Amino acid sequence: MAKDKHISETPATQLLRRNKVEFGEHPYEYVDHGGAMESSRQLGVDPQQVAKTLIMEDENGQPLVVLMHGDCEVSTKNLARQIGAKKVAPCAPATAQRHSGYMVGGTSPFATRKKMPVWVEESLLDYPVIYLNGGRRGYLISLAPSVVVQLLGARPVQAALPKH
Fold first, then answer.
1. What gap in Å lies between CA 76 and CA 84, rounded to an integer?
2. What is the SS3 string spanning the chain?
3. How far apart are the C-alpha atoms of 34 and 17, rounded to whole Å?
């Protein structure tokens, strides 16, 4: 009996396994436009601990990844200022998909098609465990937030805005 029964095999989980990263797997019922709030509700976890993976771009069209609390928005003004860009905006869904290689709603920061700089909301790093997309819709993984720093070189920013 294999003790490593994996729920889903995605480029993200393959990368984590190759790097011997321990992670939990948390499938849930995907709901269109439900986002991190819906997954956190179904899994019974604090939306502050769920990191949504956002693909954005700067004024030159250079893509970047932002990991943000599930119950917050990104202040693109604050983000741009902190990363030295003139402006930052979310990518169109088709563009985000092209950069990441993942379907919108199933975007993981791990094993993206294009190598992109990763920015993480600083307060996410305070949790012992965070939940983020494992590379497909309806599938979160849980891991130590230090993994995004070690494996992705994620740099902390303070760009969270509470959702209204």
1. 12
2. CCCCCCCCCCHHHHHHHHCCCCCEEEECCCCCCCHHHHHHHHHCCCHHHEEEEEEEEECCCCEEEEEEECCEEECHHHHHHHHCCCCEEECCHHHHHHHHCCCCCCCCCCCCCCCCCEEEEHHHHHCCCEEEEEEECCEEEEECCHHHHHHHCCEEECCEEECC
3. 28
Which amino acid appears at position 119 of this protein?
A: W
Give me the amino acid identity at 162.
P
Q: What is the pLDDT of residues 123-150, one digit of tens each?
A: 999 999 999 999 999 999 999 999 999 9
- What does the pLDDT look like over 149-159, one tens digit per residue? 999 999 999 99
Print burial letters for 62-101: b (CB count within 10 Å at least 16), e (below 16).
ebbbbbbbbbbebbbeebbebbebeebeebeeeebbebbe
Protein fold of 45-162: YbaK protein (3.90.960)
Cut 0.70: pTM above it: yes
Q: What are the domain boundaries of the chain?
A: 45-162
